[in-house]
Write a structure and sequence with these properties.
- It is a single chain.
- The chain is α/β, with parallel strands linked by helices.
- The chain is built from ten helices and nine strands.
- β2, α2 and β3 form a beta-alpha-beta unit.
Length: 285
Amino acid sequence: MKEDIEIYIPVYNGEKTIEDCLQSVFNQTLKPKKILIINDNSNDATLKILEQYKDRIEIINNDSNKGVSYSRNLAINILKSKYIASIDADVVISENWLKQVFLSLKKNEATLVGGKLYEKYLNNPCNYWRSIRLKQNWGDKDLKDPPFIFGCNNILDTTNLPREELYNNDGDYFKLNGDDTELCKFLKKNNHIMYYDSKAICYHLQNDNYKSIAARYWRYVYYGDGLKRRNLFKTIKNIIRQIKKTFFWTLEDLIKLRFSLIFVNLAMMIHLIALDIKNYKTNET
């Protein structure tokens, strides 16, 4: 089965996961024509690992750390295939993942299809927390036109898309956060079909701690707020809102006997408040 499909992987400091990620792509039952890696100026051993596979992949090195959305936009403009698949550098895909999302794309006449991401290391309470409150899937059933398709694993039909309009790096919000939600807004507005395929399985290798999961959640909230600057009033309001969230999260976890998450809630609240205060002080100086 040969199809006009290429795949790209944006990576920044991915030395712990990029090799497993690549191996999962090499093992696909449906082989992509090209594997493009956008190395976002990693300062760990990522590039050294990638160069071991340079006969099987193409590597683009950003001259500075520009963010995942920048790297995704760059990849879409470099690749010329009709179908472009993408996975994150901390994701491993099951051997039939590419075939499954491609067949779903064709069967459902969709423009964008995403698969189901599982958290691999659920014995870590922070990862367990993320699997519940920051999960990157829409459940166990296939779904036509979900709210959006997650950027961590998907395939795109570029046939009727204005690439130059959609995949540019103008504007801070789009550059930092808009690679998945902004694309999906465009697709819905222009009557494109999106599809979530629960049988296209992949696994998240991210292994968080209290500090990193708090930073991840804080970024989602901040970017979701449109990167708006926060004055003292907004900062206090956000802290109060976070305290309320922590209370309700903890109550829910008690009811559902998820005792390991209670300390995660409390530790995250402390880190989130510290991040809000730090952000406020930075904006004031």
